[in-house]
Automatic annotation (TrEMBL):
Gene Ontology annotations of biological process type: monosaccharide metabolic process
Domain of life assignment: Bacteria
Entry keyword annotation includes Iron: no
InterPro entries xrefs: Fucose_isomerase_N/cen_sf
Protein name according to UniProt: Fucose isomerase
CC per GO annotation: cytoplasm
A GO term for molecular function: intramolecular oxidoreductase activity, interconverting aldoses and ketoses
Keyword Iron-sulfur in annotation: no
Keywords assigned: Carbohydrate metabolism, Isomerase
């Protein structure tokens, strides 16, 4: 669960500081946490001066928070909350609505919120280098407040895994895929291992475990049990190597089929059914993007190639490692389209809204989305994207493809189920990543950066 903290700030001269508004709002926020998946890990007594703010800031930092909400119960001036804004954790400024709208002004909290956001980045302000900060307004029960908070919670889940997750880079990148050989700049811990670790793991798999996995296969295929044993042994070995990691970027060719006689794709697909996260061809930034998207959407994401453009839309395809959650039709284990060896999962991508993020070198990212038609394309996992958008701007498929190529995005699209572009863009803001705009010009050249 995400860890939230709240520091109420007050100006004692205002009547609203004596009404217990912060107590009631904290009770409501705790109840909302049960619904949205967060806990109130730190709350402070109302802060009225700079010394109290500094003490609250020290306690908030020690609480290991994912988000600190500075709650404007009443109006307050900058010296009271700037020590909290300076913390190296995501911060939200939240104003409570006025308790009445006639007679003496009870709180002036919205004005305090306005003052607070005006200080962030303002030249000459103590908070000139602080940011980003998100503002909130309303009672906890208000739909607008909850919608803005829920959006941030998704973004912060993605940010947390990118800051503190742990992944395995198994075998490096596929040969010649130089664009995948880029470091991760968000704090994600990367551990490297050679494919020798996989060969050793394969030797350790007992035959009985392979037979048990074979009997429980439960997926249509024309392959015999004898033909499937090597791929299920590979599945068990990969599963063992993935233990303790948030995900694995795997160089699944050419060595694996050359040494074992099988492709890794059906193994990766079946492990994805179990909640493991696998990125093909050693795509490390693709794996990081998948982890972020999984955290934001709550659903498994996939890697896809942009494989064909026609009047039907943009064909998205990959070799057959998608989990069953991505289809509403049948699946089969079939031969690899080029090598003809076992096995890949063949299925169509289910119709509906999709969104994605692709992390890039130099603290950049692209955020995009669209809709899949549900119509199958090439063998493997495939589908047509008939509507597209980029940074929440609608594009046609041709403009989307032009933007992708003009920005020289690596050839794996990371895609997730549902519409999550606002949360993904907020995730980038929390991490200090620049979101690239669409670039749909169709007649220009690709220049060096």
């Amino acid at each position: 669960m995400l860890r939230l903290g709240v520091v109420p700030i007050v100006r004692p001269l205002f009547r609203g500081s004596k009404l217990g508004l912060e107590t009631r709002s904290l009770e409501a926020l705790r109840a909302l946490g049960l619904k949205l998946g967060f806990e109130l890990a730190y709350t402070a007594e109302p802060v009225a001066d700079e010394a109290q703010a500094q003490a609250a800031a020290r306690a908030a930092q020690a609480a290991n928070l994912d988000l600190l909400l500075i709650q404007h119960v009443t109006f307050s001036t900058g010296e009271v909350f700037v020590p909290l804004l300076e913390l190296p954790i995501p911060v939200g400024l939240w104003a409570l609505p006025e308790v009445w709208d006639r007679g003496p002004l009870p709180q002036n909290a919205l004005c305090g919120l306005n003052l607070g956001v005006s200080l962030v980045g303002a030249q000459g302000s103590p908070a000139s280098r602080i940011g980003p900060v998100k503002w909130f307004y309303g009672h906890v029960e208000d739909p607008w407040f909850q919608a803005r908070l829920e959006l941030s919670l998704g973004a912060l889940r993605g940010a947390r895994v990118l800051r503190s997750g742990r992944v395995l880079w198994l075998g490096g990148t596929a040969p010649g895929f130089f664009a995948f050989e880029t470091p991760i700049e968000t704090g994600l811990m990367v551990e490297r291992a050679s494919l020798d670790e996989l060969w050793l793991a394969l030797e350790r798999i007992p035959d009985l475990a392979v037979e048990e996995r074979l009997e429980a296969l439960g997926e249509p295929t024309a392959y015999s049990k004898e033909e499937l044993r090597p791929t299920l042994r590979l599945e068990l070995a990969l599963s063992q190597l993935a233990q303790g990691y948030d995900g694995v970027a795997l160089r699944e060719w050419p060595e694996i089929p050359e040494k074992t006689g099988v492709m890794a794709y059906s193994a990766m697909a079946r492990l994805a059914d179990q909640g493991q996260v696998w990125a093909a061809e050693g795509d490390l930034l693709g794996l990081a993007s998948m982890l972020a998207l999984n955290a934001v959407s709550g659903q498994p994401s996939i890697l896809l190639d942009l494989s064909h453009l026609s009047s039907r839309g943009l064909m998205l395809w990959h070799g057959g490692e998608a989990p069953k959650a991505w289809t509403d039709g049948p699946t089969r284990l079939v031969p690899h389209f080029n090598r003809g060896v076992p096995a890949v999962r063949d299925m169509s991508l289910r119709p509906g809204a999709v969104s994605g993020i692709r992390l890039l070198p130099d603290r950049r990212a692209v955020v995009y989305g669209g809709a899949l038609s549900g119509e199958k394309g090439y063998d493997g996992n495939s589908g047509w994207m008939t509507r597209a958008s980029w940074a929440d701007q609608d594009l046609n498929p041709e403009q989307f493809l032009a933007s992708w190529l003009n920005h020289r995005i690596p050839h794996h699209m990371v895609l997730g189920m549902g519409s999550h572009q606002p949360a993904l863009m907020e995730l980038c803001a929390w991490l200090g990543l620049k979101v690239l705009p669409p670039s749909p010009e169709e007649w220009g050249l690709v220049w060096p950066r």
